[in-house]
Amino acid sequence: MMRLSLMRDFLAFEGSKALISSILEKWGGNANTVQLIRASNNFSYAFQDQHERFILRITPEGNWSSLEEECSFLHFLLNQSICVNRPILSKNGNTVEEFHTKFGVLHAVVFNFIPGDSFEIEDISTNHFFLWGESLGAIHQASRNYLPCGKVKTIQYDLLQEVEELIPNNDVEAINELEHLKVWLDSLEMNSDNYGRIHFDFELDNLIWNDDKVSVIDFESGLEGWYVADIAFALRDLFTEQIDLSNPQFKMFMSGYRSKVNISDEELRRIPMFLRLHDLVLYATLLRSMDIEKHAHNPDWVNGLYDKLTYKVEGYKEKWKKLHR
């Protein structure tokens, strides 16, 4: 998630329509059709051009090379007949455009719009779980043959370094958890069968359903890591109460996954530890996002979101206190 101050200021900016219009001009889109879809890690807008719909994604504080690499991976997956967003070239022939604004450097990418349905985990059927796993298995199978076009962020080095830099020196519980996870990750084997380019946010929010066809969006969080980490992160909502690898829905997900690529039961037994990694990464991300205090001058949605994030942060701290007693 981006910094709350940036989200607040960007969405309240009186000149935002003109700014988005100037960004969209790089692709020749119709600014009068722009609609905000989501603001989280980035600002995502839908727009129309020549009766076709597209997605404009604006990333604050992003990294040009990592966004280029994301688009390269998407083109690779499309060539493997995997249903993902297709990056659209700008009028300058670029997949990524850079803009210097009062909000700092913004990077923009345009994708084709994929129509379809989205579901919450409590609303999906057994067959949905199979197809969900099958889709992730297909990506991991393809990933084994992918050669990155540039440097790709890794879990065990780059991501953990980012987390470490965000955790305050006096945050004992989080530091203890970080050190524990560092030692554990260092002990894991890395090979072409268990480690490669992963989505890293393969939850239902990033899947679009058209009957039995699954399309995948939002690869911006992608990095290099263990494939089982992708499974753990995808199914985190299934394991909110208890991590049960005998859960019928989990087993159906894995049946779909294993229909495309093999993974050992030993690897799957690492899911609980990767879920702990997810908690720590999200905790650090929330700390970074909460760069403002509650204030009467803030919009109600900002103060409400701040309260929600504070509740999550405190929940992680309590969990780690119990773990490290």
Give a quick precis of the structure.
The chain is an alpha+beta fold and 325 residues long. The protein contains 11 helices and 10 strands.
Structural commentary:
The structure is a single chain. This protein is an alpha+beta fold and 325 residues long. It has 2 domains: 4-112, Phosphorylase Kinase, domain 1; 121-323, Aminoglycoside 3'-phosphotransferase, Chain: A, domain 2 (Alpha-Beta Complex), CATH 3.90.1200. It is built from 11 helices and 10 strands. The strands form 3 sheets. Strands 1, 2, 3, 4, 5 and 6 form a 6-stranded antiparallel beta sheet that branches. Strands 7-10 form a two-stranded antiparallel sheet. The chain has a two-stranded antiparallel sheet with strand order 8-9. A hairpin with a 2-residue loop joins β5 (97-101) and β6. The chain is globular.
